[in-house]
Structure prediction request, 396 residues.
Amino acid sequence: MTTPSDILMQAQAMADQLTAWRRDIHMHPELSFQEERTANLVAGQLAALGIETQTGVGKTGVVGYLGDGGPAIAIRADMDALPIQEENDVAYASQTPGVMHACGHDAHTAILLGVATILARMPDRPAGQVRFLFQPSEEDSDDENKSGATRMIEDKALDGVDGVIALHVASDLPSKRITIVDGPASANEDSFEIWLRGTGGHGAFPHQTVDPTFILAQVLNSIHGIRARRIDPTKAAALSIGMILAGAASNVIPSQVYLSGTMRSFDDGVRQQLRDELAKVLEISRVLGGDFEMKLWPGYPAMINDVDVARLVRVSTRDLVGAHAIMEAEPMMAAEDFSYMTRKAPGAMFMLGAKKDGVERPHHTPVFDIDESAMPLGAAVLADVACRLLRQKASQ
Ligand SMILES: [Zn+2]
Ligand SMILES: [Zn+2]
Prediction:
């Protein structure tokens, strides 16, 4: 029988191939919902493995179906890059000006191709189906405010799935270390735009105006009071204003102030409360003789890791490389659209440490890069957990 150490050996034997795939994709990054070259590469590799392949899923996504009958386990990788100009001086740097794989989705795609290779060649693969989900657009949404995960789900990529797993590389986590949290793992995210309206005029005659900058001062304090005074202090929440724009001259009182910001939480009740309290606070502008308009842009829901799937990730990591590889983790306030998939089937995402060198290389920056030698471990864990889930679901 194929053991976890066999899987690890096979993954390590693929190290050069994983790096080659990752560098190829890294050199040719594609923005959200434009992953056509990447999808072609993926579909070609899946077909070469004899895996039934469907393209154009969720617009530019690819799904591979390996095996049939019995339980179905899905493994997801995202494929999109970011509108960032790469600053790394490496042979495999992005060849597309202004576009860069600065979140590691190139590595996710390469790793999932490795997982497909391992599982397709496994003579005693457990009964059931493994579905390889190569998802477009994790970083952005289309003009209907839907990201790649939602589009894949709409195209039935997760229908009949009994479990779903994924990883995310982490450029700030020691290489070849793994973290996973139980329950809420990433945040509910909503962004908003606000226009505070008054009546502009001459700076020398403020009494003849309704000054929206004065309204802003009252509203801003109250917005920052929501977290402190309205949300249960035992529950996590963040509300930040990222933009304030007003005025054009020192002696002119503007007629409106523009604000935008973001709200984060783990609990769905807290998410709704943040929305409601924000709208309530803006009423202050009416009391002061002005008015407001608010647009809420609902973002991704919180990602909830299934406790049983998370446990399997820990057991698998321990059996593959030892318990020392598992590090303690806290939930993160960032948002991740894999959350839509974990709401369709029990699932979990783990973080794969891939810190490259002594330099800080944060995600979404021009200097982002990873230690590629962490990729085989990621592939081994995903392949091994998929096998464990298939066996577990078959015996239920
Ligand atoms: Zn990202
Ligand atoms: Zn990402």
The chain has a mean pLDDT of 97.
